[in-house]
Write a sequence for this structure.
């Protein structure tokens, strides 16, 4: 009676200069000997290949496979290493499939080895295993020094369940603050890969100013209004109360000044790039603002936002502001309601939505969205929001969504 051949598990690691046809040549050998590929992964850094293949074969064929792979590797100027695996070891690896998978995004004007070392040390302390690391930003030329608008971003895929999720969030916030970087931690689920609706605050988010402060300067009450605005954004006073007080101070201002202010608005870094990519990638975009509809509509026309919900200033028959507003105030509660409404209109799950804002009145919207991002936010907002972006412009949102520069250039 013929003895049944023993099954063997072999991990094949191949490294060396990259060139077309390597994977094809090696897998052709495996196919000829009817080896089963259980796992495969490949990456290239600066034209240097790292290829891993886990195979299952029987003991009668394994020797021939390894010999031919060695000869082919030598022919291609590659190094091949073989590691036998025990069935128990393999089954332990298979059991990891049930554990959660997370995406960690780290970005900043410049990332150093120290930044990555601190981040990965915390990942290890939490019992998470790094499965993949990739760079999302473009390649950096040695001829170009990192300028004030430069940016670098890496993305890590990790698996496991954090030992202490709240402690992990706290530590990531500390690392981000100490090292002047941003760190995003998201569950890698189906909703992360199918985001479809993104809602933005306007003042100090899409534009680098508070429009009501600009109007107040024209009305000669700039300092009084700015002080109320800052207290409201810090969450020290009720938004509707502060809004009513500030609008009242604008009484008598000629409505014509709004056009002049709109034409001089300082747009936030990365706004145009972000909107171009989002629109061409099929995202629906909305402005949900405690500011004013006139300026929201100006941005809608210029950048192509799909929706604008903001506050309407009342204008008298003499063409001057009355110091009152029309309709319901768009405060924090209303922003969250509008986000839910737009999700229904666009027929998307709330987990597929994104919200971006900077103030305390944005917190309900950030908490409601599937992905809430505090953008260059006040300390209270940053500490409360699950994700924050403070080191680069609005196009940093695209990296949180997993876009690579190479893909954005094609879309652009």
């Amino acid at each position: 009676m013929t003895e049944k051949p023993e099954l063997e598990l072999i991990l094949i690691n191949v490294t060396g200069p990259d060139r077309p046809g390597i994977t094809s040549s090696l897998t052709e050998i495996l196919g000829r000997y009817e080896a089963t590929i259980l796992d495969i992964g490949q990456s290239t850094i600066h034209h240097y290949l790292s290829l891993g293949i886990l195979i299952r074969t029987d003991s009668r064929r394994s020797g021939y496979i390894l010999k031919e792979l060695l000869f082919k590797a030598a022919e291609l100027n590659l190094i091949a290493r073989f590691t036998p695996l025990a069935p128990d070891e393999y089954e332990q690896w298979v059991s990891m499939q049930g554990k959660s998978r997370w995406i960690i995004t780290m970005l900043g004007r410049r990332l150093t080895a120290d930044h990555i070392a601190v981040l990965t040390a915390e990942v290890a302390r939490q019992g998470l295993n790094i499965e993949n690391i990739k760079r999302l930003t473009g390649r950096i030329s040695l001829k170009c020094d990192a300028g004030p608008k430069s940016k670098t971003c890496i993305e890590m895929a990790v698996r496991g369940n954090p030992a202490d999720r709240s402690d992990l969030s706290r530590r990531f916030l500390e690392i981000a603050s100490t090292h002047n970087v941003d760190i995003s931690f998201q569950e890698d689920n189906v909703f992360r890969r199918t985001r479809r609706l993104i809602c933005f605050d306007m003042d100090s988010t899409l534009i680098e100013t508070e429009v009501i402060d600009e109007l107040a300067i024209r009305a000669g009450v700039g300092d009084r209004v700015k002080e109320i605005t800052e207290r409201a954004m810090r969450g020290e006073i009720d938004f509707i109360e502060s809004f009513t007080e500030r609008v009242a101070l604008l009484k008598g201002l000629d409505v014509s000044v709004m056009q002049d202010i709109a034409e001089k608005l300082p747009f936030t870094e990365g706004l145009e790039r972000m909107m171009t990519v989002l629109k061409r990638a099929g995202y629906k975009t909305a402005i949900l603002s405690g500011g004013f509809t006139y300026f929201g509509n100006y941005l809608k026309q210029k950048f192509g936002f799909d929706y604008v919900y903001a506050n309407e200033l009342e204008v008298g028959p003499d063409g001057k502001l009355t110091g009152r507003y029309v309709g319901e105030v768009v405060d924090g509660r209303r922003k969250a309601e509008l986000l839910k409404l737009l999700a229904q209109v666009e027929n998307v799950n709330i987990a597929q939505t994104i919200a971006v804002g900077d103030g305390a009145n944005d917190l309900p919207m950030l908490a409601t969205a599937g992905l809430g991002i505090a953008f260059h936010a006040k300390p209270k907002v940053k500490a409360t929001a699950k994700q924050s972006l403070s080191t680069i412009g609005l196009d940093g949102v695209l990296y949180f969504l997993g876009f690579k520069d190479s893909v954005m250039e094609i879309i652009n």
